[in-house]
Write a structure and sequence with these properties.
homodimer, 214 residues, mainly alpha, Arc Repressor Mutant, subunit A, Tetracycline Repressor, domain 2, 2 domains, DNA-binding
DNA sequence: GTCTATAAGTAGATAGAC
DNA sequence: GTCTATCTACTTATAGAC
């Protein structure tokens, strides 16, 4: 079972760096320095590899979302969850490189991915109402409809920030990817914050910055 | 030259509905009810077809952006440009269905597409400063940095709104696609607006709505 | 301009020897 | 478990007849 696991690890790394669509089963076998036949002994094909990687992605993601939902969580913890969710997305970033075609190709994943996104959507909505209750964000016009649109903007960001940065030729390492995403999410919320909260936000961002240089 | 043009029209329709990656030269020929050999007589291959479609997309887009830049434009005109730009994007939506892989496959398009996006980015920035000058949006914290982030959010939306809606199984017709995008952009700006401007915004949206039903 | 026929290349998959 | 050899299916691309 060790080789099987090894195939998954190497495949994930390859998919992340080259893109799933650009790799054949033979390419993966070459990178592993085994024969294609051997690869097919362990997995029915590329489809089974992608499927198992998705299982891992989904399982990990659901854990994060459940944790974040259950513990009514303080403010700082929300930002922490933001961080680890983005980290998880970055670890499986090949899924987000060309979602449309990937889900069309692997149709068994499609409904599950969609459910997962809906779950994440609920998580974001809860984050927003949480921030409202804590008084972090406050605004006369923050009606239910506005919360929905804001949720969509944040989901759009989670889902396509990686593609967007690549499209603009920004090859960010994991830390910069996460930080830029969090900065962007915070900017979406900033107009709803008071001066005090804005200062706290900037302090958070500085902290991330220092953490990186350190 | 009539057949050549016909090939482009049919290819665009096919690409938009099925996705460029899912169509071979033979598929296109079948839809046209001509032989593959004939298709290859008119175009070197799928690449040349995609290239010419991109030319059309780029040329039309640059016209729209230039117009919007030059005429310092009143407020209502900005919203109108928003509409026609989204319309143009929707007409060539296959480019936005899986941008990452498409630009990797057709590398001659990549730098041009990136330049076009930068131009659009400048247009958005000008839209925002225009709205600021007109007093439509106003906020103590709307510093240059904030404008940049807001520009990014709007560009993200322009670029991936189509994919995002599809991912969520929303198969919108052209009008609903455009309207949902404009609503989303307006919601990004809403927290920077005063009550009066918000009412005007809602009036605009109602107008779109009526236009559709009528 | 349009067709048929076919070459050349590649990804996916399996059989059978070791 | 691992390998070599091979087969199918598909896409792109071209040659040459009409």
């Amino acid at each position: 079972m060790k080789r099987r696991e090894h195939i998954l690890v190497v495949s994930l790394a390859l998919f992340n760096s080259e893109g799933e669509a650009n790799l054949s089963a033979v390419d993966i076998a070459n990178e592993l320095e085994i024969s294609p036949g051997n690869l097919y002994y362990h997995f029915k094909g590329k489809e089974e590899i992608v499927s198992e990687l998705y299982e891992k992605f989904e399982a990990g993601f659901e854990l994060l979302l459940q944790d974040g939902m259950e513990t009514g969580a303080g403010l700082e913890e929300y930002w922490l969850y933001l961080y680890v969710i983005l980290e998880h997305i970055h670890n499986f970033r090949f899924f987000f490189r060309n979602i449309t075609d990937l889900l069309q190709k692997y149709q068994s994943i499609e409904p599950r991915f969609r459910r997962l996104m809906e779950k994440q959507s609920r998580w974001v909505r809860q984050l927003l109402t949480g921030l409202l209750e804590e008084g972090v964000i406050v605004h006369p016009h923050l009606a239910a409809e506005r919360i929905e649109r804001l949720t969509d903007s944040i989901m759009l960001l989670f889902t396509y920030w990686y593609q967007f940065q690549n499209l603009r030729n920004r090859k960010l390492d994991q830390h910069d990817f996460i930080q830029s995403a969090i900065l962007q999410i915070m900017t979406l919320l900033a107009p709803y914050m008071g001066d005090q909260q804005l200062q706290f936000m900037e302090a958070c961002l500085n902290l991330y910055q220092r953490e990186k240089q350190g």
